[in-house]
Design goal:
The protein is 32% helix and 15% strand. It is an alpha+beta fold. It starts with 9 loop residues before the first helix and ends in a 13-residue tail after the last strand.
């Protein structure tokens, strides 16, 4: 009696490798698209949180913040007009650095200050760190708290489509 050697043939191994490659080719684009969708959802939630923080800031100080860092935690001592402790340091970093979260960069711009020093308008833009990889849409919001977007790579504005 001849006893066959145990193990897999080359043909069987090639079939398994071909199946794994096929599954990978189908799954990876869907995985990347799902990741971008998650990043965009996180960006919209962050914009909503920033809008709410700006409204609370306005309620406390009768002005919108002059800088994004004004919404952040205090460095030393209690909260104040320049460190209202309404957002964490991820969305309101100290020292005027750019806020970045989940593949998006957030830019806060205060409107012109009145002679009294109060700011009555602001805008916030959220741009993907890498367009087409971390996100496909750019977002915009202002004191109206309406989140708007563009998906063609142009800068969003108050006249862009609404979410």
């Amino acid at each position: 009696m001849n006893q066959r050697e145990r193990g897999f043939s080359l043909l069987e191994l090639l079939i398994v490798v071909a199946i794994i490659v096929t599954i990978t080719v189908v799954a990876v684009p869907n995985l990347l698209k799902t990741r971008m969708t998650g990043n965009e959802t996180s960006a919209m939630a962050s914009l909503k949180a920033m809008n709410e923080a700006c409204q609370m800031y306005y309620g406390n100080y009768t002005s919108y913040p002059h800088n994004q860092s004004d919404l952040g935690p205090p460095q030393n001592g209690p909260s104040s007009k320049t460190a209202a402790d309404l957002l964490d340091s991820t969305l309101a970093p100290a020292g005027g650095t750019v806020a970045s979260k989940s593949g998006y960069v957030f830019h806060y711009v205060a409107g012109a200050a009145e002679p009294s020093g109060n700011v009555n308008t602001y805008s916030i833009e959220a741009d993907p760190e890498s367009y087409g990889h971390t996100g496909e849409r750019k977002f915009y919001t202002d004191q109206t708290a309406i989140i708007r977007y563009t998906s063609d790579g142009s800068q969003p504005s108050a006249t862009s489509p609404q979410m």
